[in-house]
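[Automated response] Your request has been received and processed.

Submitted sequence:
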Amino acid sequence: MSLFEASRWNKLEKTQRSILKQLEELQRRIDAIDNGFPKRESILNTTSNANNTHNTLSHSQNQLNTSTHTDNNSTYTKKVIIAQSAVRRRIARNQREKLTKSYRTRSNIIAEIISSEKTYNESLHTVIEVFILPLRQIVNTSLNQLGFGVVTHNDILTIFSHFETICALSDQFLLHLNKRLESGKKITGLGGESSIPPSLTITDIFVHFGPFMKSFKQFYENYDTAIAKLTFLKSYPAFAQWLHKGERDPRTHLLDLPSLLILPIQRLPRYILLLQALQEATPSDHPDMIHIMKALSLIKDVANLVNEGVRQNQGKQWYQRRVRGRTRNFRTT
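Generated structure:
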């Protein structure tokens, strides 16, 4: 209660005490019948004073109620304004936190795209440096006659079909990603491998290189044939020993050659997953969003094209096996 309200309550209490005293005086005069009635004027004056006092009390009470109601309305309005301001601050803070989390997630995904491409590219070069180039050198020298004998250039082409093309594509793709990352850091003044600017756009690079990824189609279609040829050559002890030695090279990270050859097959689905994650973490008004949608659509089209080619190739191989089987049965009969 404010000081003003306390003062009014004190006045009311004093007025009430005065009225009670006057009423008690009036009651005593009325009850004093044995001593004779007091003068009529005195009773009327006392009653009039009591009525005036009562009216004054009522007026004061109304004023106090009006003042209290006004003060209560003012206090309520202030509380509403404070509550609305707090709610607006909370909403703004939540939006900032959500946007910050979104940008942090987006930066992490971009870092994953670049770092995973680097790891993938290193594995492709490992296959070339540990297996393709040495094997090609062996075939071109007298070592082939001394050891393998059966390995030919056609065998190398069969096992590593379009592999070097895919590696060259990854070289250029990674080069453009790193250049974009460095230029983004210079613009924002950031440094360090983990400093990915939220405004950085990279998916236009996917759009640029997407059409060239159709070279994956020939590699996918040939994969089963490559593994079959590799399995056949491993039946020769000299080649099997040479292959085992290469697979123990530290650069392979203990992966055998078939596991390394399957990396390009795994890369396209990985691109799709990373782009989908990037799309979810990117605000709709971000300048990279339109490129994300184009890149995702393009990579999915390439993946569908590759899968369709693989299905057709498998159907063709199945048909050829049936034809060969029927031919053998016909000859035996």
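Summary generated for your ticket: Confidence is low (pLDDT under 50) at residues 318-324. The longest helix spans residues 40-140.
If you did not submit this request, please reply to this message.
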